[in-house]
């Protein structure tokens, strides 16, 4: 195996990986946060206190001193880890393939999808938990959205969350994140259909309902995964749980601005692909084997928990 510095990025396979990402609209969690490029694996993000909300007597007596106002600053640490998977394409795979490149493309697309699913789950585990947002509430059995009853109201629940975010952070909620099953329930809920029954265009796509919730966009994950252990009977579930996150997310990274989180990225913003020969895994008759490796190095980081609100158990 050559030294890692001698292993180049295979342009053709990287393009296949990128094209696959663009077509795989099931993976949506990366779109929840703006991307922030970082130079180091670990570092710190400056976080200001909430002194801007303090109302203080600012009257100044004639010839007297003004009152002093201060602000506080703390550091929030981050740490990135490299994520990668590989597969081996043998000389026999290539020789017995109808198209010489098919084994390489098949391996690249499989690795890319599995890494995308891994990332979707990793972001979901960070975002859709009560520790991520400073405020949350679990819907009572009679208030769960999937009941389609008069005792449940998705619009009111999201607006309640938005008001809490505004009161605690001074920012407007602009993003709602959920899985596809929850989004379908929202689309068919009586409180929603009653407001759009005379506007047919609103039914064109689920994201059209964002205006009803007074947010800019929905982030909807369609990704599913097998929860069973290897060798056991498959058991499929959504990669994102039936919780809903309401948040204020900055449109782009900037200083002195509030945001629920960022997607910290080092290196490529996409999935990078490497390919090299593994002679020890090949043979004289069939030729050398080649290893395909797909990787990414990025992670979702909650930086402003006051800008988020979690609604738990949207479905019965």
* Range of strand content: 25-35%
Report the radius of gyration as a whole number of Å. Answer: 24 Å
Provide the CATH topology.
phage-related protein like fold
- Average pLDDT rating: 86
State the shape.
flat
Oligomer: single chain
User: SSE string, helix = H, strand = E?
Assistant: HEEEEHHEHEHHEEEEEEEEE
Q: Give the CATH superfamily.
A: phage-related protein like domain
Protein described:
By secondary structure, the chain is of the alpha+beta class. The protein has one domain: phage-related protein like fold. It is 24% helix and 27% strand. The protein has six helices and 15 strands. It has helices spanning 11-23, 91-95, 102-127, 154-169, 180-188, 190-196, and strands spanning 35-37, 42-48, 73-79, 83-89, 135-138, 175-179, 217-221, 224-226, 236-238, 244-247, 261-265, 272-283, 287-296, 298-302, 308-312. The strands form five sheets. The protein has a five-stranded mixed sheet with strand order 5-15-10-6-7. Strands 1-11-14 form a three-stranded mixed sheet. Strand 12 and strand 13 (287-296) form a beta hairpin. Helix 1 (11-23) packs across helix 3 (102-127). The protein is flat and about 95 Å long. Mean pLDDT is 86; it is low at 1-7 and 17-23.
């Amino acid at each position: 195996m050559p030294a890692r510095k001698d292993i180049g990025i295979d342009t053709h396979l990287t393009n296949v990986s990128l094209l696959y990402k663009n077509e795989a609209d099931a993976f949506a969690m990366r779109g929840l946060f703006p991307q922030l490029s970082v130079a180091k694996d670990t570092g710190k993000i400056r976080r200001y206190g909430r002194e801007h909300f303090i109302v203080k007597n600012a009257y100044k007596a004639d010839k007297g001193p003004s009152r002093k106002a201060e602000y506080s600053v703390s550091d929030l640490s981050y740490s990135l880890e490299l994520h990668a998977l590989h597969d081996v394409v043998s000389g026999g795979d290539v020789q017995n393939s109808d198209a010489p490149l098919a084994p390489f493309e098949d391996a690249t697309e499989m690795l890319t999808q599995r890494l995308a699913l891994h990332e979707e789950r990793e972001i979901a585990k960070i975002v859709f938990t009560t520790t991520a947002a400073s405020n949350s509430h679990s819907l009572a059995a009679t208030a769960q959205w999937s009941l389609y009853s008069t005792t449940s109201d998705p619009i009111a629940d999201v607006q309640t969350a938005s008001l809490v975010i505004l009161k605690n952070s001074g920012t407007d909620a602009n993003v709602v994140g959920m899985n596809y099953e929850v989004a379908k329930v929202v689309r068919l809920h009586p409180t929603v259909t009653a407001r759009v029954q005379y506007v047919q265009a609103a039914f064109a796509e689920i994201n059209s309902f964002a205006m009803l919730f007074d947010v800019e966009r929905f982030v909807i994950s369609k990704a599913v995964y097998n929860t069973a252990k290897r060798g056991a009977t498959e058991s499929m579930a959504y990669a994102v749980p039936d919780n809903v996150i309401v948040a204020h997310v900055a449109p782009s990274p900037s200083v002195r601005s509030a945001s629920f989180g960022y997607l910290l990225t080092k290196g490529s913003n996409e999935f990078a692909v490497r390919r090299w020969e593994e002679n020890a895994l090949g043979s004289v008759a069939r030729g050398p084997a080649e290893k395909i490796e797909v990787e990414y190095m990025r992670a979702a980081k909650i930086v402003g928990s006051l800008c988020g609100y979690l609604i738990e158990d949207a479905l019965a």
